[in-house]
Fold this protein.
Amino acid sequence: MNDYLRATLRAARTDSGGTEHTLADEFARLRDYLELMAVRMGVRLSFSLHLPDALAQHPVAPLLLQPLVENAIYHGLEPKLQGGSITVHASQTGGTITLEVVDTGMGFDTTTLAHPATPGRGYGLSHVRERLSTLYGTAGTINFIAEYASGTRASITFPFKK
């Protein structure tokens, strides 16, 4: 827990004024957070993180994925009696990077976007949108997709920096 808190505070004060750190750092913070949540939820939570080596040093806004993972747990897995899993992965296609958080939780109603709290409109998610806009303008996007059986897929895309 101390490692997570220390790293989170450090991420907010990076050398670039808190606007970027590496995807490796972002995934390390997610691992710390998910390990804490796994202690709390026990067997009701499983997770996997997939970061290709080629993307590990790519710059990204600090705590960009954290609100998505928190929402997946809070809205998706905690209300589900048997819990579920979260998968976070990064990929590159051409000049675009995609970061996805996929959970097997409760999902949401695609006709009303009700989750019980409407996805994409919370405090943390407004900060994700703000970070994407600040760093990438209209080229940075976030989308929510209802998964087939249950669960939600949150997908962030932004330009690959060479």
Q: What stands out?
A: The chain has four helices and seven strands. Residues 111-120 have pLDDT under 50 and may be disordered. The first strand starts at residue 21 and ends at 22. The helical segments are 2-11, 23-41, 66-77, 123-136.
